Amino acid sequence: MKKLFLTALFVVTFFSLSAVSASAVVNDRVKVGLWYGSNALFSANLENSLGEGFEFGWFDEDREFCSLGRTGETQISMTAAGDIYMNGGGAYSSDIPSGGYRFWGGWHVELRGFRDYQEAADAAREYGGYPAWISGEFVARIGSYQSRDEAENGMDRCGGDGVAQSSSTGIVVTVTKTDEILFEFDCGGARNLGVLPEGWQGETSTWFKGYKYAGGFEYARVTGGNINVMNVVDVEDYIKGVIPYEMNGDWPLAALEAQAVCARTFVYGNSKHTSLYGFDVCGSSDCQVYHGLGSGGAGPSARSNDAVDNTAGECLYYQGELVKDAVYHSSNGGATEDSANVFGGDPGYLKGKTDPYESQITIPNYSYSVTYSADELTWILEQKGYSIGTVRNVYISEYSPMGNVKKVTFEGSRGSTTVSGDTCRTIFYSSTYNKSVRSLRFDINGSSAGGGGGVYVSGGGQLSSLNGVSAISGRGTMETLSDGSASVISSSGITTVSGGGTVSRPSAGASNGSFTITGTGNGHNVGMSQYGARSMAEQGFDYQDILEFYYTDITIR
Q: For residue 480, what pLDDT is reported?
């Protein structure tokens, strides 16, 4: 950390510019959204890798599985009911595929009045049909016709109680890569199809999209369209599927234990997707990365599983209440940050502090540098709804007392805008240019990263203003500052400083049309640093020590 000094009646030190609602978890079972929303699936395959067969049914309000029937097939597919096409490779779609394909429609002959799944299945088998559970009643459905007329002609040939059309909330279960329908489920969106693998000695393991998962699956097609896929799993099994993807499973045990407590607290305290999608957490970095039992060659380690078992049931509490945002990040670059300065709000337990531990280990890609042209920034801002014209300058307009970026100002040909909090880093993200700012600890246009920002008096804290401060000028005379700012010479040249953490920079980038951002760390800087946790664990701290350092005034129980 570089320091500058103004000779005055006292020494002034300038740290340079370089640098939820209640959980929806029920009975310790969590619903994890795997594919949903814009990524919802027309068809989803499962393969039982440990036992044989599956049960069909639904999960009730207590997340207990209510079984309707079963199949001995080990590879099944859940597909949106209606007109379905299958290409030569066995893939299902709602559109006619190129090349050869098979088709079945959404109209059926229907037999009604059955007491249970088996009775409906026996009746359907006689005509090459399948059992279905429609609005709480068992029926047998025969044939898959393209129109009502075709279905009525079919009824004339085989009899039946009428014809029916699969609705926009229906889901059919088939033997994967075939047109053999095993079951159809449709409760008009009031209940979701549940599928539970039949395990071996009580254990289950099911392949889905390249990963194995414990527990069962739920398929929601509430308003038509494609299917949202959820994993319904015990919380502790869920945590085991998070740890090795949020932290290296071979890291020291204490670091993994700290991560386990954070991950468990997060899932119990979070319900950000419940009202919209009906699950507790997603399986991506928007919540916590979750890949269940892994992909065969990679996944939970014996040590990461031990970390979960060793801390079973433990969560973070603040003033007697469960912590709602047990957030964490990869590395902070030298200091964590107050949640109020990043996300808004002040939960009390997310306070910034200088982190002495990260610097004691080697962290991959700890420092970064990225350069944007004025045209690139102009385009990025326009895509994100900021209309300030051509970007002429961008600078850090305020640092926090911890030395992290608090505000960034963009000046353009038609005006200016200032962003704050986590937007200070996320606003720079562009998938088009493959560029981003990794942390909130950075500088713009060449000053070294990791400094403070603002003016500090040795032993006296940060000055709120420079008005009235006496300093020795470049002419050697004592002068009193009156305009609230002063120019100092730093490694970056002449920089104008003021009190209160505000920094006014010249238009250094405008001359060559580019802006270089250099920084340290990776993430939003709030809560636990994962690399800091690793460093503390390597120095002999236990997981309680780690959590009590990164979260303020918390208890663990």
A: 66
